[in-house]
Model the fold of this input.
Amino acid sequence: MSRYWTLLPVLVMTGVPIWSVPSDPVIAIEGLAALFCVGGILGGALALVTAGGVIGTIGYAVAAVTAPGGADVIGAAVFGLALLALLDLGEFARRFRGAAISDAVLRAQIAYWLARAGLIAAAAAALLLCAAALAMLVPGSARAVIAGAGAMLAFGGALHAGIGRPER
Amino acid sequence: MSGRPTPQAFALATLLAWCLFLGIVCDRLELLVAAVPLAMGFLSAARGTGSPRFDFAQTVSGSRVAEGGRVTVRARLHAADALPMTEILSLVPRQLTLVSDTNRTVQTVEAGGSADWSFELECPARGRFDLGTALLRLWDRSGLRVGERRLAEAAEVAVYPGVERLRHVPQPLRTQSSFGNYVSARVGEGIEPGELRPFAPGDRVRHINWRATARRGELYVTRFQEERNADIVLLLDALSDCGAPPRSSLDLGVRAAAALTHAYLARKDRVGFIEYGGFLRWISLGAGRRQAEAVAEALLPAATHFSYVAPRLDRLPPRILPANALVIALSPLLDARFTDALADLVARGFDVILVAISPVEATRGSVARSTVDDLALRLWALEWRAKLNALKRHGVRAVEWDGAVPLEAVLSGLTRIRPVGVGRP
Done:
């Protein structure tokens, strides 16, 4: 798999904030993020790609804060998927560069990525529905607490699932 | 198998943490929604299932090959448990060159299934190489966890020095007692007529020289010179080496030794081998194919070993270095210890031939061409030839060989140096 495929999620990741708020600061931050990502992809440096992702997220936060309208949840889900795809594709291309990858591996991996993207989209939609329901039921002052607790719970759970699981 | 989180897992955690942090700080839903795919990415990491069971085997098409030959390495991965994504790196020694396909592959194997692949290697340099070691990485499909394992099996390939066929080789001054291909000074049974003498009782009638008998009026018989074999000792200088494999001076010396061994053994001579390096290593004199094999095995690991000690040839037992043997020294003449040993052999009456392997040409092939380098190499060549000429003046029969021309062409100047029957019996 060519590493140039990784440029696609870079375009999406930087394009979503610029599409939301095409202001100079957002363009500048996202441009810097793209520069880091491309440098990391070409140089095979995961740290640079991660830095690019973090800068892109900061740019998206700036865009979200300065956006005139309400929350763009679809754009946010696409942005998150682009971040995930950036790491997946970039690492896959870097990891197996120079190796002979069998067609079965590529087919299975692409199928896995597509299935996971579909699952994530469905989960995001379900979460948004839950959030909308909670917004109607929970008073305004308690929403921030619930959101913060949920976020912390998600982060801890994700860490436990990803790296904290003991080897059997 | 020890599974561990990959750098990708930490990168994902970093991005997730930033999304959540910025979402909470900015109080924006978008960033929390953007964190959902990242969190789901973590959750998608496969549950740990322990060490999967599998067998990995790697075989080489041939365990023996000559320099420049090729071998095919075939690998097979059979999995009892499913292997989602397995990266296999077959370790290839740096002296071998990959010519087709790759030694690094990524395979997926279903439970009970197997995957096969192969790659081809060229073996330009002599030596014994291990081709049975492989590194396996078992990747999780999410790329967040990886397990590693090192597998080692007995798969070895021995690359023997290429043998140049020599039709003519330097003749020894002295022969031995067994039958062979050299005309000795000793008279007896043979096909080479030697001298005439009057008939004596017991002489065979078929040896009567009728022409001489008719001319002199009494019976004369022809005496024949015996065909005998010789003892050849190949003395390889491993004190120094220059140039890059497979064209280094030591490699050329090993090739010359292999060619001379085959040529002399084909003439029914006995051949021995001494490696004169940081320590002495030798093969006793012997004849036949078994000896050819023994010398070839001894030539494989020939290498320089640094030492301040000067090995003493005079301490070798006569069965290793007999007084009547022809000693063929193969040396780049870079170490004075070898030059002294050679002069000592000549002084002790050994029949010595020196094949001086030019270190200048061996080095020229491994350095970048520049005016200064060329000048330095020319000066070095002059100095080296002066050393060679000094040895010739001391009575050493010597030829210079740089590997560019066939060895036989270089040795041709030595093949007819001995008049028939002059040698000591």
About this structure: The longest strand of chain B covers residues 69-79. Residues 371-393 of chain B form the longest helix (23 residues). The radius of gyration of chain B is 33 Å. Chain B has three domains: 54-160, 184-228, 231-415.
